[in-house]
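S1.2 Input.
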Amino acid sequence: MPHCLIASSNKHTTIEVVINREKMTSSCWNRFFCGLVFLCFGFLGLITSPAEAAIKKYQFDVQVKNVSRLCHAKSIVTVNGRFPGPTIYVREGDRVVVNVTNHAQYNMSIHWHGVKQYRNGWADGPAYITQCPIQTGSSYTYDFNVTGQRGTLWWHAHILWLRATVYGAIVIMPKQGTPFPFPQPHREAEIILGEWWNVDVEEFVKKANNLGLAPNTSDAHTINGKPGPLFPCSEKHTFVMEVEQGKTYLLRIINAALNDELFFAIAGHNLTVVEVDAVYTKPFTTQAILIAPGQTTNVLVQANQASGRYFMATRPFMDAPVPIDKKEATGIFQYIGIPNTVLPSLPQLPASNDTSFALSYGKKLKSLNTPNFPANVPLKVDRKLFYTIGFGKESCPTCLNGTRFVASLNNISFEMPQVGLLQAHYFNLKGVFKTDFPDRPQTPFNYTGAPLTANLGTSTGTRLSKIAFNSTVELVLQDTNLLTVETHPFHLHGYNFFVVGTGIGNFDPAKDPAKYNLVDPVERNTVGVPTGGWTAIRFRADNPGVWFMHCHLELHTGWGLKTAFVVEDGPGSDQSVLPVPKDLPPC
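S1.3 Output.
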């Protein structure tokens, strides 16, 4: 039987939700589960004061499960046998304790994407950056606080390409008694967009790497793990959301795809954007959203159309000469009482290469910037960084064409270490990494001019940038036409940042900063660098530790499009990296 277990002590309240889902329909399950979760939260409000924090405990069993999609059955790695994995439900201020036990054949680590992890990189999760992976048969407990954050984040595997199937949502409710800064929805739903391959992902990626080739694009995109009825054998693999006429719903949308920015829309219904990456935004209404891998977007949708069945749909955005899968994954937005025999209508998504939509959509994203939710944009900059994004080829005698692709920042392709960088920093281990990553490219050139195929002598190394504690940083990410221009979503671990500027072409340090938005720029943890353009971000380096920064396209990350910042300890006793957990996985 479903129940919530609530135990209270003087300092914390521990909540465990135990549910038996067998034989429940998806729509019944959705209504029931939301009700149970809010019942638990509501009851928690009766027995705790607003100042108290709860401890939310979860058990994640990483295990292999047989799953069928698109007429193909295969074994996939899952958490608790679920695809997508379980949702983490917390309140702002809670402590989260997740014990991860690895029963699969692959090493594993889990990243809590967007959780700031103040002083606590040990719980961040990227393999060989903040920890060595959890080996088969072993466990590790991720123990962290959710401080000063509320909204939608997500978790995923952070090793190899295992996040193809190992991912789930994190829902952070506001503190008790704190309302949303937008109309209270009747109900909520998580919408996780993903990708599906018919073959074993790790096997084909390994083969592609050995041949020096790019892996195949996915066979389908998915909504909550399901491709929808426009694909073969997928009528039963369709996400259905039942809605009531006249009610307003909050959709927590997550792009968990490995390599594709995605459009999302619901036929006949407008979407009102109210939050991105767990930061409230100035609301604006749109027919479709654009969301990059790693990003989250919360939207309000009103069930105010004629009762019927409407497709929600997603497909990739790509405005560079790169092959993509253009087929639409679909779910169904279904008014209660409408029979399943009614044929849904499809939304009009933007064209796959609609650059103007992408740029105009990005400009609409602004921080709420109210007294309760201010935009504390750094106005003075202590450290200015300029990183170029490039592709190249390096010699590979065993590869099919004698070369393989590499990707770089400032012409340096990142080489993964064999021990965790945070351990090396904390224990001052020599020879693991250098802190000589250049603040700007050594050889400036016309970054977005004619395609450059010349070998610029890309180097490889584990080179990091050291940042003084509490200093303010401006980083300009510049796309280049080395082999080809392309859009890149960059994610910075351990921080949010403000997107103060973006543009097409080469960044002009003399003119472009005058156009920055320093009043209400959007605040987030993952930002897209436009094809053949640049993006400028600012943040205050007040979180000590080693923090990964990488392209969130798995293909590019694997080619070396990544680096890390070493943020030094501060002078205060509460401004240094926390001690090492006793169960940190060995290397």
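S1.4 Remarks. The mean pLDDT is 92.
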